Inverse folding.
């Protein structure tokens, strides 16, 4: 998951409106080529019930298409296709080098189609095109990275030294089997690519369940995989609601592993459902990331990094910062720098390439963000920037920075998932570490300081799976990503991520 979000242009040059319209048409044309169907084996089929879900453009609230509403019956069909492909060794039987070559072909195909895929993500998820492009690139990178692992699975042959007899032992890695992949709407294409690439590199066969709010680019990925030579049945895709299709996959007795990205609440339900056959579970869950801005921080750089650390993707990132603790000595200057930076932050339709922020994903999410901010304001918070929804048909919310927060207000505890963060003052390091770590989550954290020793000291003490120093939202491929505490189980994005789809076998031979 190489999110190099801050490296990519956050604002493209002004364009005339016709360019945006042309890109929108590219997206609509692709939607026309994506019938509301599920990928099961080598067929695109309707949901057994015939039911469908409307797809809305979050920038306009207009219905732009439909996806199939798969349920337990369709999950049964998809799991049995994946199981059959796995048992027949249609994927493992190709050999590691061929599997790697096919995954590389997938990366190439994604890169060739990048502009169209980005347009599809933008119309479905709402985020600005430059960010969609960066997410699509991240998806291609995941396939390229895991393609390289296919023929490098580690094995071992430990020395066995027993008095009674001589033995030879070796440890081999096998794919865990059929993996169910359940992903959220906030990075649909990237999440699909990362999970599918890792599972395929390990030799698994999969059933992917995208989020019902953003399934289009993951569906397109299904055809790209088939066209690149992934054999039918190896990857199956069932769109539909989480409590039906997702729940059926999590509890399915013939699924060996679930890899889930989403909220902590649903993650707990997945873990409980997985207990039926003790399937393996990895969970990438929510966050409430603290940021510590020290007295010696470069204020302008920190303000830009902190602001975009939330405003990127309209705050709809599990790793978005949320609670920003600023040393009292620089609070006034820092807030002034945040205001100055935010004055240039533009919000608009994702196809308008001058927009830095798009809409939120859905009406429901929009209402949730509004309720959290309104609740904080009613409780005495001050809106240093923004503080309200933006009128119009789409689900737009103004970039918002709140100060003077009541420590008991829910906005300091719950994930916001909107372009909103809070600034709080601190005086001493011990006290700020205590409040920063006082959360059920432990996904990400950041420190802004020019002192090397402070950077390392705070990083050691922050309870989070990733700590950024003088940067945010950078996750190079190969660095493990996964949360502490209730932010998840396991890691993705590196060799540990691959190992989560493998089971090791010890063979011991008496000589
Ligand atoms: P969500 O409600 O937990 O949904 C995630 C996925 O699970 C969706 O595909 C959803 O389907 C499905 N689902 C819902 N109920 C289910 C059930 N009972 N059994 C099985 N699957 C079920 O999360 P979201 O609102 O889509 O996404 C936002 C959340 O994801 C945030 O909490 C965010 O922090 C987290 N997230 C974490 C990471 C990470 O890497 N740690 C990355 C991105 C996002 P439907 O939506 O179709 O109902
Ligand atoms: Mg949509």
């Amino acid at each position: 998951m190489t999110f190099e979000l801050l490296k990519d242009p956050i604002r493209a040059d002004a364009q005339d409106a016709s360019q945006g319209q042309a890109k929108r048409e590219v997206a609509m044309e692709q939607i026309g080529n994506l019938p509301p169907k599920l990928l099961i084996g080598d067929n695109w089929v309707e949901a057994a019930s015939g039911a469908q879900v409307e797809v809305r453009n979050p920038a306009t609230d207009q219905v732009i298409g439909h996806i199939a509403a798969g349920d337990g019956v369709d999950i049964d069909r998809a799991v049995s296709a994946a199981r059959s492909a796995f048992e027949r060794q249609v994927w493992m039987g190709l050999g590691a080098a061929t599997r790697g070559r096919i995954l590389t072909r997938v990366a190439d195909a994604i890169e060739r189609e990048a502009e169209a895929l980005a347009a599809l993500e933008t119309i479905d998820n709402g985020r600005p095109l430059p960010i969609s492009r960066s997410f699509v690139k991240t998806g291609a990178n995941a396939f390229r990275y895991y393609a390289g692992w296919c023929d490098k699975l580690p094995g071992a042959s430990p020395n066995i030294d027993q008095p009674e007899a001589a033995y030879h032992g070796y440890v081999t890695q096998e794919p865990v089997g059929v993996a169910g992949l359940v992903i959220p709407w906030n990075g649909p294409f990237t999440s699909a690519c990362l999970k599918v690439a890792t599972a395929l590199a390990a030799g698994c066969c999969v059933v992917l369940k995208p989020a019902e709010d953003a399934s289009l680019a993951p569906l397109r990925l299904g055809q790209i995989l088939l066209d690149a030579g992934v054999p039918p049945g190896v990857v199956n895709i069932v769109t539909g609601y989480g409590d039906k299709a997702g729940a059926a996959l999590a509890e399915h007795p013939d699924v060996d592993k679930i890899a889930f990205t989403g909220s902590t609440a649903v993650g707990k339900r997945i873990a409980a459902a997985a207990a039926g056959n003790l399937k393996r579970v990895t969970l990438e869950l929510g966050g409430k990331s603290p940021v510590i801005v020290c007295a010696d921080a470069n204020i302008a750089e920190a303000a830009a990094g902190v602001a975009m650390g939330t405003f990127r993707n309209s705050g709809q990132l599990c790793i978005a910062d949320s609670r920003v603790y600023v040393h009292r000595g620089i609070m006034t200057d820092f807030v002034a720098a945040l205001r100055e930076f935010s004055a240039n932050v533009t919000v608009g339709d994702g196809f308008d390439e001058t927009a830095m922020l798009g809409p939120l994903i859905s009406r429901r999410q929009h209402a949730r963000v509004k309720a959290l901010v309104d609740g904080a304001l009613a409780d005495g918070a001050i809106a240093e920037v923004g503080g309200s929804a933006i009128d119009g048909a789409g689900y737009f919310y103004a970039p918002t920075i709140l100060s003077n927060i009541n420590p008991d207000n829910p906005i300091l505890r719950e994930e916001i998932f909107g372009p909103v963060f809070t600034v709080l003052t601190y005086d001493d390091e011990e006290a700020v570490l205590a409040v920063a770590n006082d959360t059920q989550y432990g996904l990400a954290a950041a420190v802004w300081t020019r002192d090397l020793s402070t950077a390392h000291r705070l990083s050691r003490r922050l309870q989070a799976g990733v700590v950024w120093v003088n940067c945010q939202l950078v996750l190079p491929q190969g660095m493990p990503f996964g949360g502490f505490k209730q932010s998840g189980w396991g890691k993705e994005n590196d060799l540990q991520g691959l190992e989560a789809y493998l089971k090791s076998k010890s063979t011991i031979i008496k000589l």
